[in-house]
Amino acid sequence: MRKIYGITMMKWKTDISEGRVLCLSCEELHSLGDNECQRCGAEIYQRKPSSIAQTWGYVIAATLFLIPANLMPMMVVTSLGSDEGSTIMEGVIYFLSHKDYGLGLIIFIASVAVPVFKLSVVYYLLLIVHLKQREKALLGLKLFHIIHIIGKWSMLDIFVVALMVSMVQFQGLATIQTGAAAISFCAAVIFTIIATEKFDPRLMFDN
Questions:
Q1: pTM (predicted TM-score)
Q2: Helix, strand, coil abundance in the chain, percent, nearest 5
Q3: In this structure, are strands 29-31 and 82-86 parallel, antiparallel, or unpaired?
Q4: In sequence order, which residues have a C-beta less than 8 Å from that of residue 24 and are 6 or more positions away?
Q5: Where does the pLDDT of residue 129 fall: very low under 50, low under 70, confident under 90, or very high at 90 and above?
Q6: Sequence ranges of the domains in the chain
Q7: Residue 187 · residue 123 · CB < 8 Å
Q8: What is the pLDDT of residues 29-60, one digit of tens each?
Q9: Residues paired with 8 in a beta bridge
Q10: What is the dihedral of CA 123, 152, 63, 206, to 10 degrees?
């Protein structure tokens, strides 16, 4: 890192600048031009093929599915012969109003905060690459690792809904079914995971 005319310039060493190729499966370094990992036999690339185009496609699809997931009913409750649907936020408000703060907080984090955060991070990473903001690459890499860590909890809301369905039906209070939003939410989660996997974080450090 050095300063030129008061501007901080970053100089990163990458596999391209060092004339090497990294295997993403076992992280073994290879000479430039190798197409197969000598350790695990996986196919290796200098950069993931069509990484940016595929990431854009999946993240936009995830965004489109997330809209109906929050506007359509996540649960449909049948009680005394009448059906009543509730969206994700209506469910959160319902549990908070009944002082069930733990369940309301879990649903809000799993169904609203985490999906929006992950999509925002992927868009931010794509902008770093497109705008060539290499000074933000290190922050982008940290955020990339964070969304990878929390990715395993992305389906938590679906499990919470399934648990609620089982509990209410077991007690004989009402009949609860998952609404159309559940399908859209699952699709949004899956496309977000794929978008994260398709993105090559090394692109942020390239010239």
A1: 0.78
A2: 60, 15, 30
A3: unpaired
A4: 42, 44, 48
A5: very high
A6: 1-46, 48-205
A7: no
A8: 777 777 778 778 777 777 888 999 999 999 99
A9: 3
A10: 20
